[in-house]
Amino acid sequence: MSSLLSIQHLHLAFATEDGLSPGVEDISLEVKRGEIVALVGESGSGKSITALSILQLLPMPPARVLSGEIYLTGRDGQTIDLLRQTPDQMQKIRGGEIAMIFQEPMTSLNPVFTCGDQVIEAIRTHRRLEAREARQRAIALFEKVQLPEPERMLSRYPHQLSGGQKQRVMIAMAMSGSPSLLICDEPTTALDVTVQKTILELIRSLQREEDLGVIFITHDLGVVAEIADRALVLYKGKIVEEGPVEELFRRPRHPYTKGLLNCRPALHRKGERLPVVSDFIDGVTEARVVATAGGAAAGRVAAAGAGNGEVMMAIDDLRVWYPSRKNWLGNPIQYTKAVDGVTFDVYRGETLGLVGESGCGKTTLGRAMLRLLEPTAGRIFFEGAELTALPAGEVKKRRSQIQLIFQDPYSSLNPRLRIGPAITEAMEVHGMGSTDRERKARVVELLEKVSLQASHFDRYPHEFSGGQRQRIVIARALSLHPSFLVCDESVSALDVSVQAQVLNLLNDLKKEFGFTVVFISHDLSVIRYISDRILVMNWGRIEEIGEAEAVYSHPRTDYTRKLIDAIPAIGGGWN
User: Fold this and answer.
1) Domains and CATH numbers, the chain
2) pLDDT tens digits for 456-487?
3) What's the farthest any 2 CA atoms get from each other in the chain?
4) pTM confidence score
């Protein structure tokens, strides 16, 4: 295979008030035609900075290339240094020679233009085609990325497509200029495991058909094992390890790589404390991590057992339907049945895992349980009282007992409000604490419980990392002494090491406070690790429900089996 891209000793920094802050240091890598190279690491490790520097998409200033070269060998066999190209020259290279697929397709697609218009525009930017020819090319690309009804998809707007379909549109757009190099920046992070599997298969098939070189950026080692030929592990802006994927995973040498591999929930029994990357970086050996986890396991399982058999919440024939079609009088004649006749119990002290693909109704069900959405029909009982029969004022009084932790902590925190007042505000609304001083003391205590500091009380949300913001949202929920928590995809967007810290934290807090948890996720390996029982949803209905290990190891339905089979597996029997 001939060399396509070569980065040599790249040093890049960002100008700050305190001087230059390192971005990446001494990065060297090579991508060959027909090869997939993965860049692996946590947020802030330098993965995306490396990719954006290839396309000169970093704002300069504050970004500054201190030294290094990035060479691209084009289709014509000519080799150029991308860092020495003018803006006009780079404009032709972007999309033509090098294309990029971003993490969040909704923010990459223009919401006011149809998907067809956007792909056709990209085609005509790189090829001198008439509108009719460009349209036919767009349809062909939509067929290639396996979008249903390609011609009809041209007239659809981004909001009318599912997450997986939007990502396919982005892949079609990236392929519109017939690039030699494709950069994929976390393209499957927010997707369900089944959709993720199809997107990975699609990228792999396109790479083979077009003989593409691919840089695949991710923090998910399971995805790396599924798709990449070689992997480079980045830590604090430096490459700490690289090699063929199989060798890297079977015989990792660097402590950071070992940490990333070992903190995955799929490798640990329920209740076992998850090791975190810092354990390995700080010199804690694998044997000691496993011994610590094993020692804690027995107590943790006992503390987080499947409850005492007492029903805390009962859901009876719950339905949440939305009108999808109306007649000329405005009366609904067709419904989208987000939740359709669901009946189950949640036991006091248990963690019930709620799992399924996007659109299966799990988030709708979680919000209806709290009456944040009004059910169309059915009854909800909480500690003997029928929530669905209570007036809005009475439900509000009970909100302190039932709390929701959202998927995206940043959007659930007011960016103009410091985190201390954001937490005490909820306490004031529910009449907790007699003075501001007393409430502040309670908040500081909670911040320390979730591994933050008292000094964080006066900071704004943007000053924290994603994992820290998730801890803040957990602290806010616990400030009201709830007995029932609904966690809606609370760890889905987090790096695997940060995810391990948050899962450990939830287990610790559950042991201390004794609350009941409904944990919503599309990741069955996380659900298996944290749950006592698992409820699998599909198209608004319950597919199956049972003990976590039984559902995971011996699924009764084809749908559950499909979810389990779609989980990316690392060699050696891990999955």
Assistant:
1) 3-97+179-241 (3.40.50.300), 311-565 (3.40.50.300)
2) 998 888 888 777 888 888 888 888 888 999 99
3) 75
4) 0.78
